[in-house]
């Protein structure tokens, strides 16, 4: 019989992964972590439903590459949360999957050793352990859902999910979002198009049936009921910010036209700050000011923040990595983060009191 080199022509190997159930058994959800996730999700839903007058802030590193520094950051964020809890719900950015414009390190799950060894199995296990540790501190977590299989491994530890600018238009990500257990923020496209985020909210709010895996790692037909908590994340695009009052009003109009609730989050980073982290405080101050002037559609902000300001290239010798500094997009440092959050807290107190009255 003739043998053809006809399938998997460009695949070099299939290496086995533990199943989601196996990983859950090794790192079970603790009562403390589960309670923090549930509290976080409920608070987020209440903010989106206007039953909670506060704003939420998704704050944290562009990507986690060092769990020790990440946990150091989480402890500080938890202390800050306790200080500002009357005005802001802080949700820690725990981003393990990075969508790249072309190539580059694709995040801790894909390559935990940052040396192109791609131990995805260990990356996934360490990611789950890290999410458990953060949740056990009592902090809710936020992540970008990029790989459609990962939520089966990590979904019980996530309170808020982003679909990124590069995938908001993807049917696969809209289908996945329709089944996610968290509120989902859809970014506008990298070209600034808000329409794709509005279409994504509509699509994800409907039931879908699609291919995925189940807890036993078997390929399954996943049937979902639809996610009612999709919202827009304005991140700027095509070299132009879109957090200003006119852009926010245009997003409100697009949502109203689609008969969707006016729920808008502003990402202070990315094209809204021309990827210059030093500009993030200006964006945040502008959003807070819009809320003080009476805007009711702005429900949250996103800040890319780390222990140390800026970013660093991944060195060949990893012992040369600077502790607490981003290896992907530049971030504001911890001192600036505290100031941004404390300033917002002070400025929002009056508005939140009025909303409660
Ligand atoms: O937030 C991270 C980056 O903006 C995103 O992953 C794209 O990065 P890149 O353009 O450096 O690939
Ligand atoms: C990749 C990110 O953002 P965006 O999809 O807006 O580029 C991110 O927030 O890490």
TrEMBL record:
Example of a GO biological process term: chorismate biosynthetic process
Tagged with keyword Nucleus: no
Record-listed E.C. numbers: 2.5.1.54
Catalytically driven reaction(s): D-erythrose 4-phosphate + phosphoenolpyruvate + H2O = 7-phospho-2-dehydro-3-deoxy-D-arabino-heptonate + phosphate
One Gene Ontology cellular component annotation held by this UniProt entry: cytoplasm
Domain DAHP synthetase I/KDSA: residue ranges: 46-340
Pfam family, one: DAHP_synth_1
One MF term in the entry's GO annotations: identical protein binding
Keywords tagged on the record: Amino-acid biosynthesis, Aromatic amino acid biosynthesis, Transferase
Annotated metabolic or biological route of this protein: Metabolic intermediate biosynthesis; chorismate biosynthesis; chorismate from D-erythrose 4-phosphate and phosphoenolpyruvate: step 1/7
Keyword Transferase: yes
Family: Belongs to the class-I DAHP synthase family.
Function: Stereospecific condensation of phosphoenolpyruvate (PEP) and D-erythrose-4-phosphate (E4P) giving rise to 3-deoxy-D-arabino-heptulosonate-7-phosphate (DAHP).
Protein's name in the database: Phospho-2-dehydro-3-deoxyheptonate aldolase
Organism: Noviherbaspirillum cavernae
Lineage: Bacteria, Pseudomonadati, Pseudomonadota, Betaproteobacteria, Burkholderiales
